[in-house]
Design brief:
single chain; 99 residues; alpha+beta; 3-stranded mixed sheet; 3 helices; 3 strands
Amino acid sequence: MGVQLAGIAQAKEKLRQTISPKKGSISKTNDVPKGHFAVYVGETYRRFVIPISYLNHPLFQDLLHWAEEEFGYSHPTGGLTFPCSEDYFINLTSVLNSL
């Protein structure tokens, strides 16, 4: 239990460092490190930068299918947008970080 909580805390801190400074702002700058990509999550389209390696994981692929069903290929931000809550996304990425 303690190890899992430590992993979640680590994932939240990593995500917090990659989120754009103004909550809800959508940045168009090229501040995405090599091997990562930006996604937008939730009602406020909060921006997260995540590793490309997530694309191979079945849980993340389920999220991609959900986004496709919700938005098709026309995303409101022009970038990859997920229709889930920020909390759900943070929990999912913490699970992926622990693998």
